[in-house]
Design brief:
- With 370 residues, the chain is an alpha/beta fold.
- The chain has 3 domains: 85 residues, no CATH class; 188 residues, Rossmann fold (3-Layer(aba) Sandwich); 54 residues, Orthogonal Bundle (Arc Repressor Mutant, subunit A).
- 45% of the residues lie in helices and 14% in strands.
- The chain contains 19 helices and 14 strands.
- The protein has a 9-stranded mixed sheet with strand order 2-3-8-7-6-5-9-10-11, with helices on both faces. It has a 3-stranded antiparallel sheet with strand order 12-14-13.
- The N terminus is likely disordered.
């Protein structure tokens, strides 16, 4: 993996004399946002669009009422102050003209011409997205965590959308394994969504980067997320779907990946489970079936010599973990399978729970987490 991009305040201030500052201002004008990239091209650049008159805006493709709205909104923006606030918050702007802009994303025809970044956007050799349901099961989140950790351990950057469920589990899996992760937002950096992911925002920015197409104070809207999903797919060599219903947004990400010629993977599930219909459907359509991280590594041709799993379990802990498997298992059943006394089993289970390998529910059943 090559050196990361860490833009200083001084470098950001230097950018203010280029087009970057105008991208910030233009993205703060709702009247032009949906046509922004085309308008920039027609105007001859972001600076030219920023200073365009009403007549010029109409000439390059904006409706008269939208042109009036744009000029009024522009007059209310203190661009230098907004830009200074943005860089002081730790953010910076990357355009598709910058050498640091992700190579894979630049290859996509509908890539964003400018993105907001917080953290260090690494030049990476390999990246994989892990996405899925916001209403993920405990098992689904466990699988996502394990896959993300396994990918991180061989140097793969894990990409996801910072949503509840599978996304959150994937980011934490990569972070806790000491790897890098990219979080693509459907809102601005200053809006934590979902609100319980405030700590995750900070951790992603410290162990990779947050990326958004939207200015810092943008609140999430439903229309933002399909656009976000195209960026997730564009940043990666492949997309892994862990759990997804038939109308899940994760399937939109998979569709983008197919359009971009990227590999699509899916974790199979119980045919009676609604959250398995999307993933099982992808497999029927030709997606790679994923049972372990090795299935992803093999398809992508990642050097497995780099692989270094961290497992300091005792032989008794490993045996008990193997006996439990990946389905919720009651302690009575674990005692029966092991043939060990209850007090021995309880002691080992507690150790595995503390180290994060197991989680116990209120019924006394244990679920393997990694």
């Amino acid at each position: 993996m090559t050196a990361n991009v860490d833009l200083s305040k001084r470098e950001n201030e230097k950018m203010a004399s280029s087009d970057h500052i105008y991208w910030l201002g233009l993205k703060m004008i709702p009247a032009i946002f949906n046509k922004l990239y085309g308008l920039v091209e027609n105007a001859g650049g972001p600076k030219e669009l920023w200073f365009a008159s009403k007549k010029r805006l109409i000439e390059i493709g904006l409706e008269e009422d939208k042109a009036l709205e744009a000029i009024k909104a522009r007059s209310c923006i203190d661009l230098e102050a907004e830009y200074l606030n943005f860089i002081n918050s730790g953010g910076y702007i990357l355009t598709s003209e910058d050498k640091e802009y992700p190579f894979l994303l630049r290859q996509v025809a509908n890539h964003p011409k400018a993105v907001f970044v917080k953290g260090s956007l690494h030049n990476y050799e390999n990246a994989v997205a892990i996405v899925g349901s916001r209403r993920a099961s405990l098992l689904g989140k466990s699988i996502a965590t394990e896959l993300a950790a396994g990918l991180a351990e061989v140097g793969v950057v894990v990409v996801s959308g910072v949503a509840r469920g599978i996304d959150t589990a994937s980011h934490w899996g990569a972070i806790n394994a000491g790897g890098l992760t990219l979080g693509v937002l459907g809102c601005g950096f200053n809006v934590v969504y979902p609100p319980e992911n405030k700590k995750l925002y900070r951790e992603i920015a410290s162990n990779g980067a947050l990326i958004s197409e939207y200015p810092p104070n943008t609140f999430p809207q439903a229309i933002n997320f399909p656009a976000r999903n195209r960026i997730i797919a564009g940043l990666c060599q492949g997309v892994v779907v862990v759990e997804a219903g038939e109308k899940s947004g994760a399937l939109i990400t998979a569709d983008f990946a197919l359009d971009y010629g990227r590999d699509v993977f899916a974790v199979p599930g119980n045919s009676k489970n609604e959250m398995s219909r999307g993933t099982n459907g992808l497999i029927k359509q030709g997606a790679y079936l994923v049972e372990t991280v090795d299935d992803i590594i093999e398809v992508l041709g990642i050097d497995q010599e780099k692989k270094c799993y961290k497992n300091n379990l005792s032989s008794e802990e490993q045996r008990l973990l193997n006996l439990i498997g990946w389905e919720p298992t009651h302690i009575d059943e674990i005692v029966c399978r092991s043939g060990w006394p209850l007090h021995n089993v309880s002691s080992i289970l507690l150790s595995l729970e503390i180290s994060g390998y197991l989680r116990k529910d209120i019924s006394g059943s244990y679920m393997r987490m990694k």
